[in-house]
Design goal:
By secondary structure, this protein is mainly alpha-helical. It has six helices and no strands.
């Protein structure tokens, strides 16, 4: 529930880099947990859209020095956070712990986090081409 509250803080204009990082972490963990899903493709679409939205939110912050979302970005991020919650319920604790350990290295300074988000988007693109 914390990432949902952090998203609300960003919407309300109270959110900063820590809240953004929390949302990024949760979305990327959710995306990683799709590895354990039976039908991964529709899940990937939700997380790919959320990664794109996070990049847009981060780039807007770089230009305006304030966080915020468009209506579409908000809906996309809410869908990804809800799906991450659902995936967490069907994965084992060991699977979750592995993903937390992997993704923890992904989040750092704002610039590092943004570079990594671009890397995730590139990986999705490469995977789409391979299919």
């Amino acid at each position: 529930m914390i990432p949902h509250q952090h998203l609300q803080a960003i919407i309300d204009g109270r959110g900063g880099k820590p809240e953004f990082a929390s949302i990024v972490f949760r979305v990327v963990v959710g995306a990683a947990l799709t590895e354990f899903a039976d039908n991964r493709e529709p899940l990937d679409e939700v997380f790919k859209a959320a990664i794109d939205s996070l990049i847009l939110v981060g780039e807007r912050y770089q230009r305006l020095a304030t966080f915020g979302t468009s209506g579409d970005e908000l809906q996309t991020l809410k869908a990804a956070l809800n799906l991450a919650d659902d995936l967490q319920e069907v994965c084992t604790r060991r699977q979750q712990a592995e993903m937390y350990t992997t993704v923890r290295q992904f989040i750092g300074s704002f610039d590092l986090t943004m570079r990594n988000l671009h890397g995730v988007r590139k990986n999705y693109g490469e995977r789409d081409v391979a299919v």
